[in-house]
Amino acid sequence: MASTAGKVIKCRAAVSWEAGKPLVMEEVEVAPPQAMEVRLKILYTSLCHTDVYFWEAKGQTPVFPRIFGHEAGGIVESVGEGVTELAPGDHVLPIFTGECRDCAHCKSEESNMCDLLRINTDRGVMIHDGKSRFSIKGKPIYHFLGTSTFSEYTVVHVGCVAKINPLAPLDKVCVVSCGISTGFGATVNVAKPPKGSTVAIFGLGAVGLAAAEGARASGASRIIGVDVNPKRFEAAKNFGCTEFVNPMDYDKPPQEVIAEMTNGGVDRSVECTGNINAMISAFECVHDGWGVAVLVGVPHKEAEFKTHPMNFLNERTLKGTFFGNYKPRSDIPSVVEKYMNKELELEKFITHSVPFSEINKAFDLMLKGEGLRCIIRMEG
Ligand SMILES: NC(=O)c1ccc[n+]([C@@H]2O[C@H](COP(=O)([O-])OP(=O)(O)OC[C@H]3O[C@@H](n4cnc5c(N)ncnc54)[C@H](O)[C@@H]3O)[C@@H](O)[C@H]2O)c1
Ligand SMILES: [Zn+2]
Ligand SMILES: [Zn+2]
User: Fold this and answer.
1) For residue 164, is pLDDT > 90?
2) What's the average model confidence in pLDDT over 84-97?
3) Distance CA 268, CA 293 (A)
4) If you compute the radius of gyration of the chain from its CA atoms, what whole number of angstroms results?
5) What is the average pLDDT value for the chain, to the nearest integer?
6) Is the CB of residue 92 below 6 angstroms from any atom belonging to ligand 1?
């Protein structure tokens, strides 16, 4: 056990005090892990659009002050009571949705929606005692997605931690902890495009490009990338996209443009934007008779999906998924192995890197739609 085990750790964290305001580097106190919890030393974290939505808190429940961050890699510092499968020194990825291994969902081969630990964007405390493990001068700072990785140390439920190969470089595989697994899994585990099929990907950020990569790995012959930001198109060619549609270039909806390009619609579509209109287009652009659309983007709280029921009667299928349908503890170690075996390239998703002290730059880049993933180095 580390000499810090059982003690409060004081460390740096980037605290979000108010919606949309730059994060502030603070010294926080991180309490020791309680039953079924582990305390992690975060080494690398990156920014996903889900952090930005809840930081902006437009159309989402505001919970402040809060420590954001959920895509990360680190090392176990100490473990709480009852934790047997993780030990200090283990290399891990914290995951925003968990796997208790006991509930009906965890026992089902089809679901990753654990009853106990499924994603909860509004909860700011630990499940064990309803309290936060972070404080500043005795005042609680709330958690985000049960991970709060914008801190040098964080406390996470053991069911939300994937133990990975210690040889895997954490500055690369940290992106597997959310975006890449989400997009890749949405295609290979949920949309399941047959070989030779045509796939449309809405939103060409890291999640969408990982979805495109999944389509290529599945043997899709045409991959149509759809984005309102044309800066995304050039890079998307490296992820298998063969054609592009910018909805801003047309005065008809993208589903009509795609239907014309594909003789009636694509075989599969994967939506990775969070925009409700893109979700509707992603569904309506699939071919009748067999088309399957998969929603991945996190919508506005009040968003409503509106489409004519005839679209379903005409044998189109609509699905959605969190975390690419992967079970975090059981499946994620093997996604990391795919990288180790050179079956999955991660470097091309990583376009920027900043020291922790400059974390607000990562937010600026995402807001400007520049780059894909920005790695935040905790030692800096
Ligand atoms: N379901 C899950 O488990 C899960 C996990 C991670 C992220 N997400 C969500 O996935 C989405 C993508 O995340 P990201 O980190 O890649 O974000 P990103 O901002 O890097 O990429 C989103 C892309 O969508 C494009 N876009 C926005 N509106 C559009 C529209 N109407 N039509 C076409 N393109 C449009 C943007 O220009 C951008 O390029 C977000 O909504 C995020 O919250 C979901
Ligand atoms: Zn994410
Ligand atoms: Zn469970």
Assistant:
1) yes
2) 98
3) 6
4) 20
5) 97
6) no
Contacts of 334 (CB under 8 A, 6+ apart): none
d(CA 181, CA 217): 14
CA gap 290, 286 in Å, rounded = 8
Name all domains of the chain by residue range, CATH numbers in brackets. Answer: 9-177+346-377 (3.90.180.10), 183-321 (3.40.50.720)
Distance 259 CA to ligand 1 centre (A): 22
User: Which of the ligands is closest to the CA of residue 119?
Assistant: 1
Can you tell me the distance from the alpha carbon of 369 to that of 232, in angstroms, rounded to the nearest whole number? 8
pLDDT, position 171: 98
Residue with tokens 């071919």: 287
Report the C-alpha gap between 7 and 133 in whole angstroms: 12
Residue with tokens 């690419």: 324
Atom of ligand 1 nearest to the CA of 277: 31
pLDDT of residue 1: 59
Q: What is the DSSP string of 173-230?
A: HGGGGTHHHHHHHIIIIII-PPTT-EEEEE--SHHHHHHHHHHHHTT-SEEEEE-S-T
Q: For ligand 1, is residue 298 a contact (CB within 6 Å)? A: yes
What is the C-alpha separation between 36 and 23, in angstroms, rounded?
30
Q: Structure tokens of 292?
A: 């399957």
Report the residue count for the chain: 380
